[in-house]
Amino acid sequence: MKKKMFSAAAVVASGALVLAGCGGGSSAPEAGETSGEQTGTVRMWVMEGSFSDESRQFLIDEFAKENPGSELKIEVQQWDGIVSKLQTSLASNNESPDLVEIGNTQTTTFTTVGAFADVSDIYPDLGGEDLIQSFVDASTVDGKIFALPIYAGARGVFYRTDLFEQAGIKVPEIIDDFTKAVIELQSKNPEGTDNFSGMYMAAVDVHGIHSYLFAKGFDYAQLEGDKWVGKVNTPESIKALEGLKEIFDGGTKYALDSQAAQKAFEKYFNEGETAVLIGTGNVGKKIDQKYWDENKVGVFAIPSDTPGEPGKTFAGGSNIALAAKAPNPELAKKALKTVFGEGFQKKMAEVDGWVPGNTTYGEGASGPFGDIASKIVSNSKLTPNSPEWGVNFGGGELSEFYGKIAKGEDIKKLADELNALIEEKLNAGK
User: pTM for the full model?
Assistant: First the structure.
């Protein structure tokens, strides 16, 4: 894939992101260039929910210790609307942060248009081949690396073992039985809890929905030759969407939950109002310790159609990149060394429950999923790896689609409409 240069428009008709600033060659410093400043402030954007206060403070303190006189300023951003905010900020000489965390499904949008600096030269110093290579590959354009994996998360199921036992429900071994289990659990409501929900499933929790749908055989699109072909309305995808609708109707009370409430969805579990959550390992850190102490929490991989084999789940995780217009690129490179140092890599694993970007330090991230984490990650799945995907489907478009299903609109009609839109947007300019 040829890397595009910046232009004056924020978004072109093809749907691919293009940022303002460069002419025939970038005037922003390359990753290997020095600004001549020995001290200063590095602004680093991280996403809400990625790192705990403890982990962020550790990183700030470590950077200050390693770079006397300089400061790392961490600014927490919201996932909702982040693509548009990055479009504006990364194109500005005055507003651009130095380092940005970016979701793995959004990375291609920015690596292909000149938004990030080439960090190939420091790749070996930050972990090299010990870094999660699938993330590195997705961030490589024309042999140059423009983003590096900061963390990944295995997505599985947390469930109340005592409520399953009281309801006489066994841990499901295939995905269709999982659907039946949460519906039956909600119907039986073992402890007679008001407004009890079998599981948490919300239209705004797109990553959770993806993990269920992908395990059911759902797909958005596949690249066939040089053209993206939509798969939303295939028989397999329609069947998966019908399973989702069954859960919306009888297995959850949170189908239309708000975005704000979803960000702390573990509260429903902690308050006994739901018995099943789909989430990454760090969610286990947020579940009330009393449930762990009383052996009332269990975990399992989202099942596939084959007993004993985990289903395909959405691969969670983020990359970190050096902005092409970073005010302090050389100092930001030093901050990256702190980020990928043993101290912070182990800290995010132990405190936040992530699999660190440098797999050398992954033992501390076994977390609640234990031995199943590697199987889950190895069988994970991503949304279409296209720069147009993050631009056109990185906001509320997908949650709106699932919200319409939750409200009872015709699934086949909705699938046909989304399929046509995907093909239009992903093939724009081809």
Answer: 0.72
